[in-house]
Every structure is written in structure tokens, then in C-alpha cells.
Amino acid sequence: PADTRGAAQKRACSAPAAVTDVARLCVCDLLVAQCDANCCCDPDCSPEEFSLFTTCSVPVVVGDSHLCRQKAAVYSLDVEANPPERIFQLIDQVSPSIFCIHATNYKQALYLRCPEMPTPENFDRLLNEFGSAAFSAEPEGWNVDTEAPNPPDANETHSYQYGAPVQTEDAFLRLPSPVVSSWCSDANPAGFLVNQATKCIRSVSVERCESIQGLSMLFYINSSILAVPKSSQMVNVTVQSIVVQSLDGRRTLLEGGDVLKLPLALGELCLNIVLGVSYHITYTDTGAIVEAAAAFVLGAITKEALSVQQSFQISFTQVNTKPVPLSGNPGYVVGLPVRAGFRPQGYPFLAEFLTNKHSQLTILQSTPSQDCLAAQGARAPVLFGYNMISGCKLRITAAMKCQPLAQTLLDVLKGQSFPEYVASFGNSQAQDVLDWVPITHLHSSEQRLPNPSQSSCQVPVSLGIEVKWTKYGSLVNPQARIVNVTATLSTTTLKQLPSGRERIIPVTSSVVFTDISSPAEPGYKAWPTINIKLPFDFFYPFV
Fold first, then answer.
1. How far is the C-alpha of 165 from the C-alpha of 186, rounded, in Å?
2. In this structure, are residues 243 and 277 in contact, taking their beta carbons and an 8 Å threshold?
3. Which residues have C-beta within 8 Å of that of residue 200, sequence separation ≥ 6?
4. How far from each other are the two terminal CA atoms of the chain, in whole angstroms?
5. Cβ–Cβ contacts within 10 Å for residue 439, how many?
6. Helices (H), strands (E): how many in the chain?
7. Is the omega angle on the peptide bond into residue 330 within 30 degrees of 0, that is, cis?
8. pTM for the structure as a whole
């Protein structure tokens, strides 16, 4: 009977009362009515058994680490006692993060909600509620007063907010992605200002390729984008370019890329199927979309192919601005380039920084020939956290003049335009002048006493860059910040070579990263100083 199944379900879903007393919590207590080895919080262990422990496998037990202040149970062993004893302390622990939970006033979150089991009576209702790709997960306890009067335009949004789905005339802009497995799901909406890149696998067949929506260009551009949510102003998705990929992987840019090419089954091949889509959205500072473009990669499949891998990505650029690649948000990410730039000439104050061509700090790039003249102009970006060294060799003859030789080596070491400033954060903006660290230049000379009867020449032979950085902000999620950059140029004195003689000198360039963070004080329990940098778009769209 249905009432019997309901009663059995209630008994199966009944859970014991939630334990919030940390003195009673013990995650290492695995054996029932037995003492677990080195589990200092196990209530089944006797003092004699505690004396045999070598360490406490769980020294600290807390309830919820997201709470601002909570009780913590601390366990340790007094090995100097005879026999050794277990020590238990109950202390107040303060979270170092400024983003923490002050109080857990939602009691339902402490319990596991028992899911409703399907029955012949409720199966259709559950299928309609949970059978789609997305469904609401709001608990029943979150009631909304629908009878309260709404102010005018309360439900209208006149601009996109960060992360909001980009709306189209029929639903939203789709960015296919893998959900549970690696197969493509077209139910993933593109979020405003959220740069994404996904790859997934789609089932294909030559016989049905013309009818599979996800393989057609039309599927990705047929719906116009709403300029702002819930508006009648539309922005059409234009075709920016089309690249055709052959079966052996070669790619060719198609001239006249604005032509719509649909899948075409031709014998044992299916042509013009979508292998990749790259959206580029242009928006205003008020959160309105003004332009949308899509670049396609089209290819072909054979009759033997059962699936094809597709790649999708989307990027956003504000109107009248140039996209600047970031190396972190806000702190630097290991392996990303160190950003650098210049100060405009003639400004009495630091007004704005003009970045170089690639907005990066670079060093000499080694070449297979190890020839400095061949390596002139070849630069490698300095990657944050990576110590690097490179070099080359220069052949010197008696006919070479001193000044041109010194200038050539200087150009090899520093490049045509060595930057003046380095960004202290990975997302430092050009207008934030305090976020840029000046590069300190030092000179080191290797003294050699030349023969008084011979002329000498002083030339640069090495450039060493030291980047000092520190952990900045919250102790829970510290951000890497550059605080000092020093470039040391070393020179040596060369004697004038006799006629017909040659000499080879090595030229080296190196980068060293030094962490100068101060270690945290042991036993520190007070609130740390709030010294953080928020992402530049944290208060978007407000300034």
C-alpha cells in the first residue's frame, strides 16, 4: 500500500540530530566500540591506550571553517609525562578571512533533506520538475511573499550584470560544454563578461549530419542577442571569419567569410560541419551589448566517424578599448607573463602608462646557433615564478669598433625598448599609477687592468633581473604582488686584439624570483590587518 511505502520512506530518511559540539566530533573514529590507533578524539580509547599513541592523526577538530568565530578542539600528546598522556583543549578560533559566516541561522542546512522517492502517483510530477537539464534547487523554506506590491520597474533590468546569461530572442546564447560526461550539452548559457573556453564531443553520422543542429553554422547565429535583458532591441550575430580544416588537419582561411555554409552530405563525406566557434561580444560601460561576432572552424567527417570534438569560446571587449591580457586577478599566477610598460614623456606626474607591444617584460631568447647577432631582436617573455637563464656567443675581430660593439651587445641584452615599470599585480590597470613598480638599474663592472700600450673597450656581457614579490592580502587566499625589480648590467673590459686575431665572448641574461613574504607568527589568533586588493570589476557597473 502507498501509506506503508510512505512510512518506510520516513523511517529510512530519519537522521540523528546534528552534532555541532566540536568536543563530540571525531572524524578518525572508524571502529565501533574500539579504539582507533592515533585517534586522540576517540571516546572509546582509555588512558592506557592513549599512552601508546605516537601522534594525533587529527590534531584540530572544527565544525565549519567558514564561520567567523567558532570553538575548536585541540588534541596533543605530552610525551614527557610517564606514561604519556593525551591533552585536550577547547579554544576559540577566529577565521583570518574577511569573507566569513557570522552565524548559521538557517537550521535546515544542518540536516540532509531526504529526496522524494518516485512512485506511480508522483512520477510524472517529478519528471517535469527534475527531468530537464536545469532545475531550481531552492528549498521550500525560502518563501517569497508574492503578494507584496512591487515598485514600478522592479522586475525590469536595463543592463547586463556580471555573470548574467546573455539573452537571445528565444532563450540565451548557447556555449556547448560537457556536463556529466564529455558529450556536448547545448543547455550551457554564456555568462556576461565571463570569458569561457570549452571542448566537448558530439555524436555524428554522415547520413544524419544535415539534420544535427549542433553541426550547422545556423544553430549558432540564427538567434539575435538582446542588447539589454528584456528589451526589444536586437543585436545580430555576424560571421567574422570562416576557417576550413581538411581531413589531414590543414587549415585555410576562406575568402568572403560572411557566407553561410551548411552541412552537406556528399557520398561517404559530410562537409561544412562546425568544429569550433569563437564568439566576440562588444559591450558599453553601462552593460549593454552593441556588437556580436562569431568565427567558425569548419571541417569534414568520413563515414567511419562516430563522433567529433568541438571547441567553443567567448570573449568580451568594452567599446573603444583595446583588450589587455591579464596575468592574474588580482595577484600574479605562476607561469603567466610579467606585465611591463613605460611612462609618457613630458608628464610632470605619473598620469598614465603606455605598455609596450606585448605588455611584457622580456629577456634574450636563446637560439640554436648561439649567435648573438642572429639572436638580436629575439625575445622571450619573463614568466612569473620561473627562474630563467639564456645566452649567446659573440665573435669579436680586430676590425670591430668599441662603441658600435657595446651598443650591439646592449641591444641584445635589453632589446630595442626595455620597459621602465612593472605591474605589481596581474590585473594592474594603466591608469592606476600606484600599481606600477619602477625598475631599478644597477651597473657592475668587472675590473681588468689593460696593458698601457694597448687600448681597451668596456662592453656589457650580462643582464641579471631580480624580481622580489610577496604574498598580499588574506592569509586564506594570498595574492602574489611584485614589490621590487632590479636590473643589473655587468660589463667587462676587453683589450684591443692584434690584427687577424678573433675572440669569442659569452653573453648571458637571467631572471630570478625571490619571495620576501614574512612568515606568519605562530599561535596568532587575533584578526589580521585587512590589506587586500579587490578585482578591478568588483563593483561593476559602478565606478
1. 14
2. no
3. 176, 177, 178, 182, 183, 184, 185, 309, 310, 312
4. 63
5. 18
6. 6, 24
7. yes
8. 0.45
